[in-house]
Write a structure and sequence with these properties.
CATH class: Mainly Beta
Radius of gyration: 20 Å
Largest sheet: 8 strands, antiparallel
Distance between the termini: 56 Å
Oligomer: single chain
Mean pLDDT: 79
């Protein structure tokens, strides 16, 4: 059944979605380096338990086997959206300094040296992402009394370039091959309707070209394939993108869509009767994963597709999973609800073997105490 989505409803839905992301175990609290090292925003409660969520305080790094745990930050302020630099040596993250102040901070994973690049007075800041050349960082900001927009900061100079104020700009990512931004930008505001458009943006001018239009994007986390040819995103399609009047109607549930940018071909990846969220490509580009649920922004099942053959299968069918992410070409991480809270698991996509990474991290926490690093056996840095 078609649904009418007015502007204020769309804005409220979007803000609620970002708030839900800030409170859950999804991309705002975890990042995987090219060597499989995992950065986590964690809060120890005195027993060093694994407690992700909106109370996350400091950044730790570990691996998919939980063989070590190293603390990178110690100031106790809330930290979100960690992301590894292209050379794998630094992390950028968003720090909540309180009273509506948010900082873009870079920390060296080896020396733990930190540098705040820029501070925003805003309702929220999210999706801090390194450019492929390592010279810039993009992030999205919901400035007070203004629409959300994307900004780019130069790492060395601290110079900030902002996108236009007259359009909604949502989640963004970098195109690895073109050193351009790919983001969702609200391109239709007449008749109290917001319609998203997938765009590539030149970071210098913050202007770009449309890739796909006619979508309402309430949950638009983006993922680009390693070869730069395909973009996957979550969206609700319009009934008829060509007509402004018909853009008031949105058909079906939010699903995962895949755009072949070179061929201009757009297709739905997730099941037609399910909600789809959090697309992610494996590091070798051979598989794509996503979450399917019967309810909006709810836990569900983890699906994967082998891209070459088009074969799809349920990898985790327990109905309580959330946010699948790739650690390597063979291992996929995901969270699952339990009575004790959210538990982090790692699953081998070939053998089906599942490891409780939360238990391993907890063991390292107990060993950590006041030390900077705990490890099982000897690990070379």
């Amino acid at each position: 059944m078609a649904k009418e989505v007015p502007l204020l409803t769309a804005l409220a839905l979007f803000c609620a979605t970002v708030s839900a992301i800030a409170a859950g175990c999804i991309p705002n609290e975890i990042a995987v380096n090219r060597d499989g090292t995992i950065a986590l925003c964690l809060d120890g409660d005195g027993e060093y338990k694994f407690i992700p969520g909106d109370e996350a305080r400091d950044i730790y790094i570990t691996d998919g086997a939980g063989s070590f745990l190293k603390r990178l930050t110690t100031d106790g302020k809330q930290k979100l959206w960690p992301h590894w630099s292209p050379d794998g040596k630094r992390l950028v993250y968003v720090r909540n300094d309180g009273s509506g102040m948010w900082s873009i901070v870079v920390v060296d994973a080896g020396t733990r040296e930190e540098k705040a690049l820029h501070t925003e007075s805003a309702n929220m800041v999210w999706t801090a992402r390194w450019a492929p050349d390592g010279k810039s960082i993009a992030y999205t900001v919901a400035e007070k009394d203004k629409l959300c927009r994307v900004k780019v900061i130069r790492v060395e100079s601290g110079k900030v370039t902002a996108g236009p104020q007259d359009r909604l700009a949502w989640f963004c990512c970098w195109s690895a091959k073109r050193n351009q931004l790919i983001c969702i930008e609200g391109s239709e505001l007449d008749n109290d309707v917001v319609v998203g458009e997938l765009k590539t943006i030149q970071p210098g001018e913050m202007k770009g070209e449309g890739l796909a239009a006619g979508f309402f994007h309430p949950y638009s986390l983006l993922a680009e394939s390693p070869d730069g040819r395909t973009v996957a995103f979550s969206a609700i399609p319009c009934a008829s993108p060509a007509s402004k009047e018909s853009r008031r109607d949105f058909d079906g549930e939010s699903g995962i869509y895949r755009l072949d940018a070179s061929a201009g071909r757009l297709s739905r990846l997730s099941s037609p009767d399910k909600f789809g969220f959090f697309p992610a490509f494996s590091p070798d580009g051979k598989m794509i994963s996503w979450l399917e649920s019967s309810k909006e922004m709810d836990d569900g099942d983890v699906w994967i597709e082998t891209i070459e053959s088009g074969e799809k299968k349920v990898l985790v069918a327990q109905g309580n999973a959330s946010y699948p992410f790739w650690i390597s070409a063979e291992k996929l991480g995901f969270f699952a609800k339990s009575q004790a809270g959210d538990v982090l698991f790692v699953k081998d996509v070939k053998t089906g073997e599942t490891t409780n990474l939360s238990d391993l991290i907890n063991a390292r926490f107990k060993e950590l105490g006041g030390q900077e690093e705990a490890k099982e056996g000897k690990r070379e840095d």
